[in-house]
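Appendix B, example 12.
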Amino acid sequence: WAWLPIFGIHEVPSTNTLIGGCAIFMAIIFQGMNARKKHVIPMP
């Protein structure tokens, strides 16, 4: 990641990096929430 002060990495992320990180994070959360739902297979 671009900014990890715990490990001594003090690079300041740009706005595009933060927006991209939020988009990826939200996509992972959305995918995880959809994976928790039970998929009902319709009977023919």
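The helical segments are 15-36. The chain has one helix and two strands.
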